[in-house]
TrEMBL record:
It comes from Micrurus lemniscatus lemniscatus. This is Ubiquitin-like protease family profile domain-containing protein. PROSITE patterns: ULP_PROTEASE. GO terms for biological process: protein desumoylation; proteolysis; regulation of macromolecule metabolic process; regulation of primary metabolic process. PANTHER family: SENTRIN-SPECIFIC PROTEASE 1 (PTHR12606:SF30), SENTRIN/SUMO-SPECIFIC PROTEASE (PTHR12606).
Length: 192
């Protein structure tokens, strides 16, 4: 059934060819920091952006947004859960200005038709991720530094209620939904 989409572990992390390895080394080397290395999803990635992936650097908005778009693109392939990801500005705008400030962000997408909704959350010094899984009726908060943020989960649940009323003209059924914050030992840890 469509609800139980999984990916074979072999396909989840494809191998890196010699040619790929050469290209990776090329983009990670020193050079013009403003050189455009990739353009897709109406986003531009420069060498400076890519450098945030090295060592213990802090990831910037461009890298997070590009990756979120890559996940959405991959989710169109057979066998993958369908994904919609908001950009890095969504949660801050929702939290500070409320639903009216973000209600047009889904003008062209029905978030209730996807399996997974991803919301990157920036806490000033590091990134967290809130994952709404419509199949499991969960909103799960992931923080690699071990923090919990039930407030973020509550804000997102309230967002789903308002989005349903606005776009579907019906109440969002929260019956059976769980708000979860993963403990630090349950997720990969950040070292910086």
């Amino acid at each position: 059934p469509e609800d139980n989409k999984t990916v074979d572990s072999e396909d989840e992390f494809p191998g890196i060819t010699e040619e790929m390895e050469k290209e990776i080394k090329n983009v990670l080397r020193s050079g013009n920091q403003d050189e455009v290395l990739s353009e897709a999803f109406r986003l531009t990635i420069t060498r400076k952006d890519i450098q945030t992936l090295k060592h213990l650097n802090w990831l910037n908005d461009e890298i997070i947004n590009f990756y979120m778009n890559m996940l959405m693109e991959r989710s169109k392939q057979k066998g993958f859960p369908t994904v919609h990801a908001f950009n890095t500005f969504f949660f801050t705008k929702l939290k500070t200005a409320g639903y009216p400030a973000v209600k047009r962000w889904t003008k062209k997408v029905d978030i209730f038709s996807v399996d997974i909704l991803l919301v990157p959350i920036h806490l000033g010094v590091h990134w967290c991720l809130a994952v709404t899984d419509f199949r499991k009726k969960t909103i799960t908060y992931y923080d690699s530094m071990g923090g919990s943020n039930s407030e973020a989960c509550k804000i997102l649940l309230q967002y789903l209620k308002q989005e349903s009323l606005d776009k579907k003209r019906k109440e969002f059924d929260t019956n059976g939904w769980m708000l979860l914050c993963k403990r630090s030992q349950e997720i990969p840890q950040q070292m910086n």
